[in-house]
Amino acid sequence: MALTVIGSVALDSVETPFGKRKDVLGGSATYASLSASFFTPVNLISVVGSDFEEKHIKMFTKKKINTAGLERKKGKTFRWKARYHYDLNYAETISTHLNVFEGFRPGIPPCVKEKDNLLLANIDPELQSWIFRQIKPRGLVACDTMNLWITHKKKALLKLLKKVDLLLLNDAEARQLSGEKNLIEAAKYISSKGTRMVVIKKGEHGALFFCGKLHFIVPAYLLETITDPTGAGDTFAGGMIGYLSGKKKITDSVLRKALVYGSILASFTVERFSVEGLLRTTPKRLKDRYNHFERLTRF
Amino acid sequence: MALTVIGSVALDSVETPFGKRKDVLGGSATYASLSASFFTPVNLISVVGSDFEEKHIKMFTKKKINTAGLERKKGKTFRWKARYHYDLNYAETISTHLNVFEGFRPGIPPCVKEKDNLLLANIDPELQSWIFRQIKPRGLVACDTMNLWITHKKKALLKLLKKVDLLLLNDAEARQLSGEKNLIEAAKYISSKGTRMVVIKKGEHGALFFCGKLHFIVPAYLLETITDPTGAGDTFAGGMIGYLSGKKKITDSVLRKALVYGSILASFTVERFSVEGLLRTTPKRLKDRYNHFERLTRF
Fold first, then answer.
1. Other CB atoms within 10 A of residue A53 CB
2. Looking at beta carbons, which residues of chain B come within 8 Å of A207?
């Protein structure tokens, strides 16, 4: 089944202990679309400015990501500037310029169907809700979020949770949203707000999945090189929901594999700056790392 | 094969956000012996003072832990006082009184054989080395350590590492000992010092195993209740080495299961204060949790 991804397409300037990059391709929808494209056709909905280079659009097209819903507006592309210190779990945001994203309410192109799955990648929950109302999706609906929205748009986020099937957020955010220190309790609280499935991402420590009494733990792939964690969570979300979209039926086993693929795709992202890691990933390299991960974790 | 465990037997006074206990049974050799006793006969070598209650000795005996090597000296038992805040990964030590442990050089009872496996539970590496020289072990030798010894007795610890087959330490300690931020690099450094196998414990995030090119990742069991993390690492070490000691041959598969059992036994320890969690654990409850863990992690 096709997957619609709505979120940001951005130009990031990032500094980590291992180097820096200026105005490189980023944004939640960018990482999520590229990651999902390994498994299913993707329709990307977002907006960029007149400064957005054609080569990025070509790259999406080459990856079979439909950009009919990628609006080009006069003005500058969304920009995010951040710095990571040795603890790569935390980004210090230096600046965020919404630019063309300010008040953005996208048109929905005809290629986006109600029956498709929908990934509301990390972006303002009011925009996520708006998109939801436009599309009236009948497929699986997943939502990714972050601390910024829990702090400033909690009410909108909680309202949205009643409509989505799956919420993805990190451990600190799950604690912040629920007020619960224990992650099982946090997941229970979030489920009680209407979201059947909850994925708690733990960065270099993997991820947890909760759906009623079904729990699942997936560690992260062990890496020798971590260069830039930007986009890891978005890649995880895209990989997981992309994998689910590529399957006819969502079973227990398919859900588990989807989490593992999300985790492994994120491991490619963090090895390099921007989307370089994902762009170097081939289906064969992905399958090889999946097989290696199996050997790392089987007992 | 029988397992000799040398380490501390202590009386701990611990405060966590969930309660406090005064002068309860603790110590690295206590947790490690109890944990190992699920799989193999254990000879405990340690020292206690005249204030050590007979009921604890009886408890060891009931668990088939041979206390012939548990010396009773005039004076006070080793005491440790600590406080945990909401981040249960870090204990704030309020006081450590070595008491009878000061300069302790134990006699080795005849029940301890050269051919047995040996676990040098967390204690001064000079004492660990001394024991090693007394026993001249021919079985598997594992060593657990902590930041205190890396800071103050690094030279003695590095010397000891040439003789042991397996070192256990936590992630912060692996980074401290190696000077490497990345845990794969840290394990490589430690192996280069002579220890063939390295286990890096990550608390609530599980553990990593390294032996040459063989890596293995085990997540921690998901718990709703964490009351007191004291002894989790010691329990892990005892469970892992105990399991290995109970097997005729150490294969890849046996090593993996040993790590999982270490992790699961540690989950019982942290659910309650002192050794209460371990004492409530039956072989059936252990096996049930092992089976549940399989369902939590299989994909």
1. 13
2. none
What is the per-residue pLDDT for A142? 98
Other CB atoms closer than 10 Å to residue B26's CB: what's the count?
28
Cβ A243 vs Cβ A286: under 8 Å: no
Among A170, A151, A280, A176, which Cα is nearest to A236's? A170
Give the span between the Cα atoms of B54 and B52, in whole angstroms: 7
Query: What pTM was estimated for this model as a whole?
Result: 0.92
* Beta strand spans in A53-179 (E): 65-72, 79-84, 91-97, 117-120, 141-144, 166-170
Q: Do A218 and B299 touch (CB under 8 A)?
A: yes
What is the complex's ipTM, to 2 decimals? 0.89
Q: Chain B contacts of A219, Cβ < 8 Å? A: 206, 217-219
Residue A174, both tokens: 């799950």
Contact B181 A86 (CB under 8 A): yes
Task: Indicate yes or no: CB of A205 within 8 angstroms of CB of B208.
Answer: no
Residues of B with CB under 8 A from a CB of A: 86, 181-185, 202, 205-206, 208, 215-219, 222-226, 253, 256-257, 259-260, 294, 296-299
- Whole-number pLDDT of residue B89: 77
Contact call for residues B293 and B221 (beta carbons, < 8 A) = yes
pLDDT at A89: 77
For tokens 């046996």, name the residue.
Answer: B254
The dihedrals phi and psi of A237, each to the nearest 5 degrees, come to -60, -50
Are B205 and A205 within 8 A, CB to CB?
A: yes
Burial A136-167 (b: 16+ CB within 10 A, else e): ebebbbbbbbbeebbeebeebbbebbebbbbb
**What letter does residue B222 receive in the DSSP assignment?**
P
Given a contact cutoff of 8 angstroms between Cβ atoms, the answer to whether A185 and A178 are in contact is yes
- Output the six-digit token pair for B234: 């010691």
Query: What is the spatial distance between Cα A69 and Cα A107, in angstroms, rounded to a whole number?
Result: 7
Counting Cβ atoms within 10 Å, is residue B253 exposed (0-12), middle (13-18) or buried (19+)? Answer: exposed
**A218:B215 CB<8 A:** no
Q: What is the pLDDT of residues A50-93, one digit of tens each?
A: 999 999 999 999 999 999 999 999 999 999 999 998 778 788 99
- Cβ <8 Å between B184 and A223: yes
**How many whole angstroms separate alpha carbon A47 and alpha carbon B104?**
71
Phi, psi of B244 (to 5 degrees): -60, -40
Cα–Cα distance between A10 and B239 in angstroms, integer? Answer: 49
Q: Which chain A residue's Cα is nearest to B254?
A: A299
Percent of chain B with pLDDT over 70: 100
Nearest-by-Cβ selection for A217 from B215, B219, B225: B219
Cβ pairs A/B, distance under 8 A:
69
Provide CB contacts within 8 A for B23, sequence distance 6+.
B11, B12, B13, B79
The DSSP letter of residue B166 is E
- Between CA B56 and CA B65, with CA B62 as vertex, the angle to 5 degrees is 80
Q: Do A182 and B259 touch (CB under 8 A)?
A: no
Alpha-carbon distances of A232 from A27, A31, A244, rounded to whole Å: 11, 8, 18
CA-to-CA distance for A6 and A66, rounded, in angstroms? 12
